[in-house]
Amino acid sequence: MIHQKTYYSMTIPFQDRSLILEGPLSGEAIESFEFHSGLVAFRPPEKQKIALIGIADLPEGRINVVRDGNTIVGYVTFVYPDPMERWSEGKVENLIELGAIEIAKEYRGAQVGKNLLRLSFMDDAMEDYIIITTEYYWHWDLTGSGLDVWGYRKMMEKMMNAGGLEWYATDDPEICSHPANCLMARIGKRVNTDSILRFDQLRFQNRFMY
User: Fold this and answer.
1) Does position 153 have pLDDT exceeding 70, yes or no?
2) Does the pLDDT at position 207 exceed 80?
3) Which value, in Å, is the radius of gyration of the alpha carbons in the chain?
4) Inter-axis angle of helices 149-162 and 112-120, to 10 degrees?
5) For range 124-142, the mean pLDDT
């Protein structure tokens, strides 16, 4: 399918200044900005910046960011699921994954993540996709947030709800390995019935388990 990308931007107040939320950005644009040293949830900042540049230039890849001046302080990624995961097995061309969302610690608590997701779904092209996200408790910053597993899970659900993602049941072993893990998804208005059925088949592959 043709992956349309339309640039959007907005500003939100933060302390004595404004933050810029924008995207999808090209790899070249991401490379031109500084990358906050606190963005360490998935890999060291310098390596994560390289990873984002690579995703941004994929046909389906989308990187939306939060900037404080010239520094990226948060981001969200949209890309096809990892080939090693079950979500790629059905070869559903209009299923993409919200693979990561991260906000530097000192920018949390101001609804930055929620607003970044709202920006991401301003694009009408997102109505052509099933967007999924897999939430695993071992990726969560429990120490930095001061929340327990269930408090963090509730916070993540509220943030994803701001982008229209809802909880979906699944028998995926990795998600089922801990009760706080979950699958969330948003099915766009123009997604056809066949794609939804194929998504359901990916969610449940062990229908006869007891």
Assistant:
1) yes
2) no
3) 17
4) 40
5) 92
Give the amino acid at 95. L
Which structure tokens are listed for 25? 């950005």
Give residue for tokens 């995961």: 85
Give residue for tokens 């070869």: 91
Q: What is the spatial distance between Cα 167 and Cα 111, in angstroms, rounded to a whole number? A: 20
Instruction: Give the model's pLDDT for residue 208.
Output: 52
Helix (H, G, I), strand (E, B) or coil at 84: coil
Phi, psi angle pair for 89, to nearest 5°: -65, -35
Q: What residue has token string 């948060």?
A: 74
The CA distance from 23 to 65, in Å, is: 6
Cα 166 from Cα 44, distance rounded (Å): 30
Which tens digits make up the pLDDT trace of 102-129?
999 999 888 999 999 999 999 999 999 9
Q: Is 120 exposed, middle or buried (0-12, 13-18, 19+ CB in 10 A)?
A: buried
Give all domains of the chain, ordered by start, each with its CATH number.
8-203 (3.40.630.30)
For residue 60, the SS3 value is coil
